[in-house]
Amino acid sequence: MLKPAPRIGLVSLGCPKALVDSERIMTRLRAEGYELAPTSEGADAVIVNTCGFLDSAKAESLEAIGDALAENGKVIVTGCMGKDEKSIRTIHPKVLSVTGPHQYEAVINAVHDAVPPQHEPFVDLVPPEGIRLTPRHYAYLKISEGCNNRCTFCIIPSIRGDLVSRPMNRVLAEAEKLVKAGVRELMVISQDTSAYGVDTRYADVDWKGQTRKSNLLELTSALGDMGVWVRLHYVYPYPSVDHVIPLMAQGKILPYLDIPFQHASPRILKAMKRPANNGKVLDRIKAWRDICPELTIRSTFIVGFPGETEEDFEDMLEWLEQAQLDRVGCFKYEPVEGAVANALPDPVDEETKDERWARFMEHQRQISEQRMARKIGSLQQVIIDEVDEDGAIGRSTGDAPDIDGHVFLNGEVDLKAGDIVTARIEHADDYDLWGELVRS
Length: 440
Ligand code: SF4
Hints:
The chain has helices at 16-31, 55-71, 85-91, 104-114, 156-160, 168-180, 216-224, 239-249, 266-272, 281-291, 310-323, 350-373, and strands spanning 7-12, 35-37, 45-50, 75-79, 97-98, 138-142, 144-145, 164-165, 185-189, 204-207, 210-213, 229-232, 256-258, 296-303, 327-332, 379-388, 391-396, 407-410, 420-428, 433-438. By secondary structure, the chain is of the alpha/beta class. It has 3 domains: 7-114, 3-Layer(aba) Sandwich (Rossmann fold); 138-374, tm_1862 like domain (pyruvate-formate lyase- activating enzyme); 378-437, CATH 2.40.50.140. The two termini are 47 Å apart. The structure holds iron/sulfur cluster.
C-alpha cells in the first residue's frame, strides 16, 4: 500500500514576484511528490512567503508566521522579510528556517529537513538521485553556487552572486544516493571548490551521528569513505587544499587537481584579479608532489589578455617549464559582455593571440609528452567508460571525462562501463595511454 504523500501548507503574501516564487517552490515540491495542503492544520509543515516592503506588510507577515506556528508548529519562512532574519527570530524563535527571496534551493532543503520526501519507485517519475545527463557510472556533484572572487574577465559573480555553499549533509546525502544508484566516480564541482564553507563559517553539521565541520577536508574525507573515485575540479591553491593532499596520498580521493591558473605573469594575474595569486604557487605544487608523487595537475590558461606583453607571455612559458603540469588547455582571450577586463588598455591583436596560442600549445605538448612517457611500464587504475568490438576505453586516475585523455585496452571486450581495473601501461602519446589488463 502506498503511504500518503507529505502535505505542505503555503501562506503567500506580497507582490506578484513573491507569488511566482511561491509557485516555483510548490512546483518543485509537487514534482518531488509533496501535496499542497489547503490549511495549516492539515499540513505536515507550512511555508510562509513573507513581504517586507512596508511596515504594515511586515506586521502582516509576522502575524501570519504566528498563526502558522499556532496552527501547525513546523514553519519555514522565506521571502523579502526573510532578509531580516533577526527581527523574525526575535518574535518567533521557533521557526525552522528563514531565507530571503528567490532562495528556492534553501526552502526546498528546509522542507526536506522538516518532512523528508518519500520516494515511491513504482509511482515517481524521478528517481531519488535525480535525472542525470551523464553516463550511469559517473556524476558531477555540485557543492556550492556563486563566487566571492571578482576576476576581471568573468561575469559569473554578477550572474550567480557570491558564494553559497550547499549544506554539507545535503551534499553527502546526494553523493550517497548517487553511489547507491551505481555511480563509481564523483566529480566535485563549483565555481571555487577550495572556498567551500567560507560563507557558512564552516558550520557544524550532523552526518551519520557525528558533528562535522563544513570545510573542504571534512567534505572530501566523508566522500572518500564512500568507496568510489572522488575527483576535485575548480580548485584554487589556497591553504585549504594542502590539507586534502594527504587524503590523495592515502588513496582516499583521487590524486588529481583541476586548477584553472589562467596565467603565470604576476602583472597579468594582478590585472586579472585572480585568487591565490601570491607568487608561491610553484613552492606549493612542489610540496604537494613531495607528499603525493602521483598527483596529476590539470589547468587552463588564457593567452592575449589585455596588456599581455611578449615578456609576460615568456614568463608564462618559463613557469610552465618549472611547474610541469600534466594536462593543460589554452584559450585565446575574448571579451565577454559586461566583463571589467574589456575596458583594460592595450588589447592584444588577433594575429599575436594566434601566434602565442600556437607557441603555448607546442611548449606544453612537449612537457605533456615527457610526463606521459614516464607512465610507460607503470600500473594504473582505470575506470572503463565504453566497450566496443576493438576493446575497452577508459580513463586513469589522472583523466577526467571529456577534458583529459583515455586509456585504451585493446581486445578487452568483456569489460563493462563502470568497471575499475588495473592496467600495465605499454605505450603513450601526448594525451592518451595504451595498456594491458592485469588480471588478479
Ligand atoms: S573566474 Fe572563477 S574564480 Fe574568478 S570570478 Fe569567475 S567564477 Fe569566480
